[in-house]
Amino acid sequence: MSEKNIVQAIKDKGKTMESEMSFFDHLEALRWHLMRSAIGVVVFTGVAWYFYDFIFGTIIMGPMHPDFWTYRMMCKFGNGFCITHINGTIINTEMAGQFMLKINSSILIGIILAVPYILWEIWRFIKPALLDKERKAASGFVFYASILFIIGILFGYYVIAPESISFLAAYTVSPTIHNTFTISSYLSMVATITLIIGIVFELPILIYILASIGILSGTFMRKTRRYSIVILLIVGAIISPSPDFLTTMIATVPLFALYEVGIVVASIVEKRRLKKHEEIMES
What we know:
Blueprint: H1 3-50, H2 52-60, H3 69-75, E1 89-91, H4 97-126, H5 132-137, H6 141-170, E2 180-182, H7 183-200, H8 203-212, H9 218-223, H10 225-239, H11 245-282
Parallel strand pairs: 1-2
Helix pairs in contact: 1-4, 4-6, 4-7, 6-7, 8-11, 10-11
């Protein structure tokens, strides 16, 4: 092997080792971000465990109480909307059911409370890989994603979950069948509805990401608005099991608003991409 080939082989080996070290460095950084996120969840889970009596009686079981905030607000629209009694009994059917309920619900509350911190750890991980302009453009990622998630959680808990509980608890196929629910099925339904709505409210963030990588554009979203409306109506009907039109629209209107916000976000990103393309062409 010639001296030139040996030198080139050494350079190639150095580049390979450098890339491997870079990969393992990123892997190590990701591991620490995940560990800190897990610690954050554990800390908030401990807080939820400490204040569990209040969390269970006031928050988790809140939609089962006739004096819940949502039901009181509904009464202001007229007696026809008043809910004075939740038909149904909640029971426990497993030996360790109540103990596991406390563990599972504390972990669930811990995860929800830790979401802003988890988003911040995600941002810290991806931030070094972004260019200066990209960092500035995405500088509000943690704030906006956290705000949207919190709004979604509150909307799911105060609007969709109570409507679902009042409807399903009152629904009977036959008067001979009495509604008796296990505490695990009740918690599962409330948690599922609340988390799904919280995630759905991240739609503008998802649209921003897709628009930034060129998959989605404001022009395309405007052209497909009529089809999107049909899809959003179906989604609204699914997440709101009550069959009346008013309840379905209450669940669907925020989805329409999120879609329109997404159009604005995608249009801004699209204009920015076109401007950047023009600058490159001129240079």
